[in-house]
Amino acid sequence: MKEHPQRSGRPTNSTTPAHGDLVARHLHELQRIPMLSRAEEEELGTALMRNDTTACRRLVEANLRFVVRVAREYTGMGLPLEDLIAEGHVGLIEAAERYDPERGVRFISFAVWWVRRAIRQALTWHGRLVRLPENRVRELARVRSASEALAQRLGRGPRPDEVAHETGLADDVVATLLETDAPLVPEQQARGIAAQGWEPILENDTLPERIGRMLPPVQAEVLALHYGLRGEDPMSLRETGQVLGFSGERARQLRNEALATLRHHMTNDDRP
Does domain 27-131 have CATH number 1.20.120.1810? Predict the structure, then answer.
C-alpha cells in the first residue's frame, strides 16, 4: 500500500499576501498539466491496480485542478485556501489508490467524495467549525454549495425548500443552516430519516447482510454509499449518483425503492 503524505500541521490563520501569491503560482502551474482522455485514465487505473506509483502520480497530477475547484467551495470556513487544497490533495491520492476502472465510472466522479471528505475532516479538526460534529460540517458545505449553484441557475436567491430538494436535507435543517450558519437539529432529522420513519431499518445491526440478500445490487450499493453502511462517511444523494454514474434524483428514487422493500420485509418478519 502506498504511503499517504503526512498532514503538514500548518497554522490556520488567514492567508497572507505571500500565501496568496504561492497559490496563484501553483494554479498557473496546474494549467500546464494536460487532461487525460478516458482511455488514458483507464490505462492508468489498470496500472494502479498493480501498485504502479508512476501511474498514481500521473492520475493525481492530471486532476489537481479539480481539487482546487472543490477547495474554493470551503473558503471562509476556518482554513486558508492553500490548506484546503493540500487536504483535498490527500483525498485525491486516497481516491487514486481505491479507483477501479472496471466499474465504468470516470475517475473524477469517483474521486469527488474522497476529496470532499478529506477537506471536511480538516475543517472539523482545525477550522472554525471544530466544535461541530463532522456531519454538521458536511451539511453546511452542501447547503452553501447548493445555494450558490441554484442562484446561478435560477438568477435569484434560492428558497430553503429548493436548497433542501437539491441537497436531500430536511426543509427545517436547511432553513436553520441558511439563517444561522450552524446546524441545531438531531442527526437523524438532518439526514431526513426520522421524518420518514426509517430509523428501525437503519438501526438494524444485520442490515448490511440483509440488503445483499433482499435487494438488487444497484439498490444495495446506493444504500451502502448513502448511509455509510461499510463504516465510511455517508454520501449525499448527488455524491452517490456521481460514484455510480447517474443523477442524484435517480439515486433518491433507488434509495426510496430499497427502503420500501426493506420495510416490507421487516413488517413481514415481525408478523406472528
Answer: yes
